[in-house]
Amino acid sequence: MNLLKLFRIRQIIKAILIVFALCCIQTLSYSPALSAQADTIKTPEAKYYNVEPTEKDKELVDNAKNNLKDIGDNIREKLNLDEPLPQSTKEFLNSSEKKLEDTIEPITGKKQGYYQNNIQAR
Q1: Nearest-5° angle of CA 67, CA 81, CA 115?
Q2: Half-sphere exposure of 111 (CA within 13 A, CB side)
Q3: What are the tens digits of pLDDT across the range 60-117?
């Protein structure tokens, strides 16, 4: 019985020493190659996949940028976003602001609101 307890204690001590040795080895080992690899990662995607962008990837990105720019130009042209507002639209907006002002004045006690700054700048 006494021999069995002694055997168990030796096993426990050996396991503790092995765990301690492994922890010391990991703590004391240092590899500069691992830290040098970390500097090459520039984007979250590259960090996840651990890759560097290639020339083909750069071409794809440039093509996507050009396509998006063309789409934006097409939308701007179709919706006439570069043209000034027609006078009737300006009159409608001004009348809406006046109605809003008349509605808000009894509540706030002020005639001028944040939207008035745009009117004064015109």
Answers
A1: 125
A2: 1
A3: 889 999 999 999 888 888 888 888 888 888 888 888 888 877 787 777 776 665 555 5
Tokens of 110: 């002020």
Q: Annotate 60-96 with b (16+ C-beta within 10 A) or e (fewer).
A: eeeeeeeeeeeeeeeeeeeeeeeeeeeeeeeeeeeee
CB-CB contact of 66 with 57 (8 Å): no
Q: What is the mean pLDDT of the chain?
A: 76
Task: State phi, psi for 22 to the nearest 5 degrees.
Answer: -65, -40
Residue-range domain boundaries for the chain: 32-83, 85-122
